[in-house]
Amino acid sequence: MLKVTSVNVNGLRAAARKGYLPWLAATDADVVCLQEVRAESAQLTAEVREPDGWHAVYAPALDPAAKGRAGVALLTRREPDAVRVGFGVTEFDGSGRYLEADLPGLTVASLYLPSGEVGTERQDEKERFMAAFLPYLKELRERAAADGREVLVCGDWNIAHREADLKNWRANRANSGFLPEERAWLTRVLDPADGGYTDVVRALHPDQDGPYSWWSYRGRAFDNNSGWRIDLIVSSPGLAERAVKAYVERPASHAERWSDHAPVTAVFAP
Q1: Is 160:229 a contact under the CB 8 Å cutoff?
Q2: Using alpha carbons only, what angle is made at residue 11 by residues 265 and 3, rounded to the nearest 5 degrees?
């Protein structure tokens, strides 16, 4: 079995103070993908940077204007055969938004897609990222298939694909994260004739609202389960066919949260 978990930690140093380390010590995942780490490895304590039982690789935001933001990481039980930062586009290769590693028969990636904000440069950046990333995703899947490998791209995609993927979809139709053009882009990623990937959680829960993975800290969003499903585990079709379980590790109470996101986990048969 292969068990993979993805979580936006909303600042790894803060998460470590709130409960991330006990969660990591308790998980039996083979791979953990982290997003929004917001710290360079030298800023982390040894316990957080190099947790027992894991091989950890970090890709922080290197641009001075972006330090303290973004950042992704991969934790694997087995040492990766190879690691690559970025996807070959100069603007984003040092932005702390994409990191991939090769394991036996599998390439796994941690993604933190820009969040965007309508009418601002942040949305322009998000659109440039998406335009450059889709061709890479297709190339990655095709290259892996030629080598007899599967692909997993896990992370905070910052797009709710369907109405079932956020509680208040009517109020968010003009907001970044649920714009028609963003949803259409994600449809292309998941189109067998285009990107060719599968949304593993949705494939196993086709008729469910959610399961949501992000809830604002404002108001009572968590208590009311007024959330968004934007943390996705996306895989090549062959691996998706082996998925036997996928779920969100939603905390039992607001007080037990160590991020505004919850871990998303998928389990695959051999």
Answers
A1: yes
A2: 15
Q: Are 249 and 262 in contact, with CB atoms under 8 Å apart? A: yes
pLDDT digits (tens, 9 = 90+) for 96-140: 999 999 999 999 999 999 999 999 999 999 999 999 999 999 999
User: Distance between CA 124 and CA 119 in Å, rounded?
Assistant: 8
Residue 234: strand pairing partners:
153, 199
pLDDT at position 179 is 98
How far apart CA 96 and CA 123 sit, in angstroms, is 17
Q: List, by residue number, the catalytic residues.
A: 156
Tokens encoding 12: 């790894």
DSSP secondary structure string, 33-84?
Answer: EEE---S-GGGS-HHHHS-TT-EEEEE-B-SGGGTTS--EEEEESSPPSEEE
**pLDDT on residue 68:** 77
Strand 2-8 to 31-35 pairing: parallel
How many other C-beta atoms can be found within 10 angstroms of the C-beta atom of residue 51?
A: 17
For residues 212 and 149, give the distance between their C-alpha atoms in angstroms, rounded to a whole number. 30
Among positive and negative, which fits the CA dihedral 29, 239, 92, 213? Answer: negative
Tell me, which fold does domain 2-268 have in CATH?
Deoxyribonuclease I; Chain A (3.60.10)
Nearest to 249 by CA among 5, 14, 16, 17: 5
Q: What is the pLDDT of residues 42-77, one digit of tens each?
A: 899 999 999 999 999 999 999 877 777 899 999 999
